[in-house]
Structure formats: structure tokens, C-alpha cells
Amino acid sequence: GTYQVCMHVATSNTCIRDTCFNINVTIPTPAPCNTHASFIDSAVNATNTTHYFYNTSTATPGVATYSIWNFGDGSPVVNSSGLTNQSHTYTASGTYNVCLKVISAQTSGSATCADSVCHTIQVQVPAPNPCNLVPRVSIQNQNNVYSFTNTSSTVASSISWSFGDSTTGSGNSVTHTYNHAGTYQVCMHVATSNTCIRDTCFNINVTIPTPNTCAVNAGFRWQTSPTTSTTNNNYTIYFLNTTTSLSLRDSIIWNFGDGTSSHQLNPIHNFSSTNGRDTVCLTVIHKDSFNNAICTSQICKVISFPNLIAFPNPAQTSVSFSVNLQQPTPIYAFIYNMQNVLVGQVLQQGVSGSNIVTFNVAGLATGYYYIRVYYNGSVHYTRFFKQ
Average pLDDT for residues 64-92, to the nearest whole number? Predict the structure, then answer.
């Protein structure tokens, strides 16, 4: 427009002058905003929990453009450079307002230009399938060759076995031969999906006939020292010799499975184990009154060590353990009482780094319990005392 500018100047009360003049002001017309926000949702029906959003917007040519996505479910807003497409997975059913804002940034000679658009979408998250898996096993023994077969009513997608002597197997039917007499705990881990997993464990008594009947029958029990420390995988184990008909003339040989041995009646041994278990054998050489060897009796048992640390221990209302993972993987954890009855289980999706898994044990009776944990194809153990 045209504006009159005036200056009023005075040197005294009697010396006063005015001067006025016109100026013409022109303001450049801003460039038109050519940015228009639009997008398409690719989901064909409400049961698609993952939605693909295609950015069909147009932007002011020749300037920097930014896209801001808000998926309407409280998840973080996604900012990106350019007219980017996005995908998003919804975890709960509902109606969501998805919004896209497109900004063409300000440059010399042009103003910032922005446009927004929102669309309402429907999401229906399917209910999880019920887990009706009841694990069952049939057992056959022929000349100490054991056959284990999964007879569960539901078809499984994954079956793994542990035979109680530090060996494992996989498949619907497996066979296993034990090299030593003893009691072994056999476990079948069966799954039909990532959320339908069951464990079943049972004991088998393996007897290996000897050519001659020996007057002594080797046997022993063991327990972990109550003050043992899991630091650096060190475990102190007390052994009690329960051999029947043992005499002072008989020779006793303990083999602890770690390259060491002992001739003590009831030894105490410190294990440094990284695989969570060792096979311990007790051999008794029975001798006559002339100190001649008559026969030999041997028994071997797998000694399991906790390679996880349960805390707090003793526990009152809850007990936890920590797992470090190199990459995300499911963590399956099961609690058993000392009668090998499953009393609790947790399935947790593990993340890279440290993971804390917690059980609610407030309803458990006072006593000892052990935890079996599966992840990355391996089995880990720990135990705790419920006050």
C-alpha cells in the first residue's frame, strides 16, 4: 500500500517544522502450499493385526519434506524424512485414529507448508488358542535298551528329551542305552506352539546284571552344602556312603567325573562345573579275610548343580532368576517340588541383554523346590527354599 510518513522537528518553542512524504510498500505474494497429506491402509479386514500404511501424499517440490505418523495406540510417534511408508502391529482389539502429518520445510523464498490427515481403523486381535496339550510317554525296555515314545493326544511341533545322564535326544520316538546302573530322571519337553508348552518327567531304575552276585551293594546319597556359592560355578557336595554289607577290608573308590577321585568313606568334594552336572561313580571292591578281591559293585549318579541363581533365597511370596541373552528368544521356566510334580510355569519372551523372570510362590508349601529353564536349545537348573 501507500503510506504517508511525517517528521515533526523543533529547536525551541518558536522554531518548529513538519515534513511529510509518501512511500509505496510491496509484499511478495507467498508461494502456494502444494503439500497434501494422504495415505492408504493395506489391511483387508479387521483381523489383520499388522497394518501397512502407504504414504500417497504430495509435497512442495524442491524443499525438504518430513512425515510424522501417529498410530493412535499410545506407541511412540514416528518421525521420518521424506514421504515414507510405515507398518505397525497392534496388540489389542479396538478402534484407532491413525494420523499422518506432512511438512515441507521453509527455505529461502518459500514458507513452511504442512497438511494432516487422519483415518479410523478397526483392529480385532484373535484370542489365543487354548493349550490342551497333555504330555504322555510310553516306555519299553529290552536288554537295557530303553525306547521312549511321545503318546500325547495333540500333534507336537517340537519334542526334546533329556535322559538324566547328561545326554539328550529329539523326535517323537527315541531309544537310549544306559552304561551304568542307577536311577535316572527322564524328561520330555513338548510344544505345539510358542505358547503351548508342557514338560513331563519320570524316574526309571536301571539295573545292569553282573556275572556274579556280590555280597556288597554299592549305594550313596548326596546333598549340596547349604553354604555353597555359585560364584565361578563352584559347588560343595556332601556324599554319604550307603553301601550294604560293607566291611573294613573293602576298598572304596569315588570317581567325581571331573578327573579327581577319593578313597574316603563319606567324602566332601568341591566341583567346578560349567555344564551344570557331573556323573559321580562309587566303586566298592569286596575282599575276603585274606584281602583278596571277590567281587566289585558300582553305582553312578548324575549330580546336578544350579547354574542359575534364585533370589531371594529363601523366598516367601516370589522368587526370580536372571538370564542374559545374546538375542531375543523365548524363555520357558518350570517349578517342581521334591516329588517331581510341576507346581508352576512361566513363558516369557526374552530380549537381548539381561532378563529377570519371576514366579509367584506365595501359595506354595514350605520346602525345597527346583526350577528347570529352557532357552536357546539348552536346559538350566536352580533351586530355592520356600519359607
Answer: 90
Spatial distance between the Cα atoms of 327 and 254, rounded to a whole number of angstroms: 41
Return the amino acid letter for 381: Y
CA-to-CA distance for 155 and 152, rounded, in angstroms? 7
- What pTM, to 2 d.p., does this model score? 0.33
pLDDT level of residue 131 (50, 70, 90 thresholds): confident
Please, which residues bridge with residue 122 across strands? 95
Angle at 100 between CA 96 and CA 104, to 5 degrees: 170
Instruction: State the pLDDT at residue 373.
Output: 85
Mean pLDDT of the chain: 84
Q: DSSP for 97-140, please give it.
A: EEEEEEEE--BTTB--EEEEEEEEEEE-PPPPPP------EEEE
CA distance 298 to 123: 65
Instruction: Give the residues across from 66 on adjacent strands.
Output: 81, 103
Give the model's confidence band at 98: pLDDT under 50 very low, under 70 low, under 90 confident, else very high: very high
Phi, psi dihedrals of residue 108, rounded to the nearest 5°: -60, 125
19-34, pLDDT tens digit by residue?
Answer: 888 898 887 665 667 7
Residue count of the chain: 387
Find the largest Cα–Cα distance for the chain: 150
DSSP-assigned letters across all residues of 170-213 = ESSEEEEE-SS-EEEEEEEEEESSSS-EEEEEEEEEE----SS-
> Any residues with CB less than 8 A from the CB of 354 and at least 6 apart, and which?
322, 323, 324
CB 382 within 8 A of CB 356: no
Whether the Cβ atoms of residue 309 and residue 381 lie closer than 8 Å to each other: no
Distance CA 182, CA 285 (A): 18
C-alpha grid cell, residue 209: 546284571
